[in-house]
Amino acid sequence: MKVLLLLLPALLTVTSASPTQGDEPGVSVAKKQQDINHLLEKIYDRLRHPELVEAATTFDPEGDLTMYTDGGEAVRRLMSEVHQQRLLQKHHWFSLFQERQREEALMLFDVLIHCNSWRCFVNNAAYFRERVNEGQFVYALYVAVIHSDLASHVVLPPLYEITPHLFTNNEIIQKAYTAKMTQTPGRFNMSFTGSQKNREQRIAYFGEDIGLNVHHVTWHMDFPFWWQDSYGHHIDRKGELFFWVHHQLSARFDNERLSNWMNVVDELHWEEVISEGFAPHTIYKFGGEFPSRPDNIHFQDVVGVANVRDMIILERRIRDAIAHGYVIDEEGQQIDIMNEQGIDYLGNIIESSMYTTNLQYYGSLHNTAHIMLGRQGDPKGKYNLPPGVMEHFETATRDPSFFRLHKYIDNIFKEHKDNLSPYTWEELEFPGVAVREIEIEGELKTYFEQFEFNLINAVDRSNNVEDVEISANVNRLNHQDFTYNIIINNDNEVDVLATIRIFLCPRADENGLEFTWDEGRWHCIETDKFWRKLSVGENTVTRHSTDSSVTVPDPPSLETLQRRADAAVEGDQELHLEEYERSCGIPNRMLLPKGKSEGMDFLLMVAVTDGEMDTNNDQLDVTELGGTHAHCGVRGHTFPDRRPMGYPLDRRIPDKRVFEQVTNIESTFVKVFHNTQH
User: Fold this and answer.
1) How many beta carbons lie within 10 A of that of residue 202, not counting itself?
2) 350: number of CA atoms within 13 Å, CB side?
């Protein structure tokens, strides 16, 4: 079977990075932020900041191996590759799905994650920034900042400002170059891919949203498929998170389609036509344009990756495992999946990650599928085209077939979930607790707005031509802030800890036919999950939409981060950027689906469950653990909610009366309006 099993990294031999690495006294968060800002400035040009230039010139990564927690093993490996000139050259595209390119990027990550001081970290970053491929450098640095304790509280600039070519179309890039060459400042309106002749254009605002693109790529940085526990910590329920986050992306995409009078997306099949083509209108900084894919083509074998037949075989093996209720590990032992942990095993297998139970047998269905889709424009490599949009997490959601692929993956997960027994009354109830009323304060109203972001990193630096102000304007979805007011009675004799789960579910399909509870629950979007202590008697729980554990605010621009870090360093002040520390999460302005001008009907469901049974942390009622734990967990810790992700809507609901009989689950009907005149 000729399947690209090694989408996982070539296994680097790594020693454990200490999860509590020390740091030099006196290095403030503001100084660290300043260093990261300068490292990411104009990444396709040489460093300009004096301290970093000196480090890149005079620092010897192998000069003192005691600065590394692995004794210098990683840096010796990378330096050997540098000296032998085996690394990918600068000014070349980089794709994480290319095995050798990924291996090189992880060599740099391996060096940074094993530094035991900030000075080691930043000196190595500066040194290798001048010697490795720009895309590999950005990827390694971002993942190292996310996972290294040395970089705690450092805020990463939005990727759409660091590598704007991956987030804008080529027309905007050309206009940016013209503006600089003519010394004419410019603000350019960016349109979505396609035209009104393409019905998928109606929902391009979702897949091409730069904030959603950042969420997708950042989630895969927080939970990389190549992660090994030897890097410092175990990623709890990683496979289940892969399922849940991509299920929610699919459900949100379906809700946007329903908002635009379109049917929910059909799944992709290996033996059927790919009906939707895609012309990205996007260009690499180096390497030409992203390849297009015409309409109505059949999947073809991709040379050096996989045959269509092989993908079908892998799918059958996974479906057989689901039907049998167990997976097989590398020793041939059966692992039961007919339980709450089964979805985690399946997620690790389907992605697949380093946590997979049997890579040789189950392969890498999801990752290989991304490459297969990305290469359909040139499956034989005849034209030597660069990777397609599906071969970058930054650009994948721009292609409507991304959501067809993930509906296909999602339906495999659903097959497993549907094999599990429905929840019983006893598994749903919270004795003594009743939801009495759900009220929304403020109208659920969405609108489109203009958002401006800086394009200065899209153009090259020149000693002869000054930079001018260059930016792009893009239409994006937003909504008015609103508040949940939930009245909950606690008839127990003592205070209790409650988990409050909120879901928004479409009531009908594109033809106006009402979903049954069992049909509709798979289209529900999770809008919040949080914990509250309930006093004896009546409690009014108030929760603002901006506090959702699913979403994140817009990150500060690179210019803002530079200004605030510089001011904090000069004034010896605290930086206070805590709310922006994680980029993983749906943009908070996209919490609601678009809805319709006349109002779109939804069911708003609130499930209040026993927090003492649910939680892995006794402080959840007073802390949000990083804000976006619902989809992104808590780095280095167990997932805070013990229940299956999506509970209580993750299993079949053959009879809705079981939900109607428990007092701790309540729902109400709401409408989401779209303001076309905003």
Assistant:
1) 18
2) 29
Which residues, 6+ apart, have CB-to-CB distance to 262 below 8 Å? Answer: 199, 202, 203, 510
Q: Is 509 in contact with 515 (CB distance < 8 Å)?
A: yes
State the pairing for strand pair 186-190/470-479.
Answer: parallel
* C-alpha distances out from residue 247 to 403, 482, 584, Å: 10, 25, 16
Q: How do residues 642-651 score in pLDDT, each as one tens digit? A: 999 999 999 9
Tokens for 81? 């590759």
Q: Are 113 and 147 in contact (CB under 8 A)?
A: yes
What contacts 24+ positions apart, CB below 8 Å, involve 509-517?
509/258, 509/263, 509/264, 510/257, 510/258, 510/261, 510/262, 510/263, 510/264, 516/656, 517/653, 517/656, 517/659
Phi, psi for residue 151 in degrees, rounded to 5: -100, 20
Beta strands 470-479 and 445-454: pairing type? antiparallel
pLDDT at 79 over 60: yes
Q: Exactly one of 351, 394, 581, 666 is catalytic; name it.
A: 351
Distance of CA 624 to the CA centre of its chain: 19
Residue 443's CB is within 10 A of a number of other CB atoms, namely: 14
pLDDT interval class at 17 (50, 70, 90) = very low
Average pLDDT, stretch 573-600?
93
Q: What are phi and psi of 232, to 5 degrees?
A: 145, -30
The strand pairing partners of 539, in sequence order, are: 488
Q: How far is residue 271's CA from residue 646's CA, in Å, rounded to a whole number?
A: 31
Cβ-defined contacts of 54-59 (< 8 Å, 24+) = 55/122, 55/123, 55/126, 55/127, 56/126, 56/127, 56/129, 56/130, 59/123, 59/124, 59/126, 59/127
Residue 12: band (very low, low, confident or very high) from pLDDT cuts 50, 70, 90: very low
Strand 496-506 to 525-534 pairing? antiparallel
- To which residue do tokens 């635009």 refer? 260
DSSP state of 85: T
Asked if 582 and 549 count as a contact pair (C-beta separation under 8 A), the reply is: no
CA atoms of 380 and 378, how far apart (whole Å): 6
Kindly report the CA angle at 173 between 172 and 179, in degrees rounded to 5? 85
Residues facing residue 477 across a β-bridge: 448
Tell me if residue 581 is catalytic.
no
- The tens digit of pLDDT for each residue in 152-204 reads 999 999 999 999 999 999 999 999 999 999 999 999 999 888 777 888 889 99
Residue 525 to residue 257: CA distance in whole angstroms: 14
What's the CA gap between 122 and 111, in Å, rounded?
Answer: 11
More reliable by pLDDT, 51 or 201: 51
How far is Cα 554 from Cα 579, in angstroms, rounded to an integer? Answer: 10
Residue 351: partners with Cβ closer than 8 Å, 6 or more residues away: 225, 239, 242, 364, 366, 367
Mean per-residue pLDDT for 215-243? 96
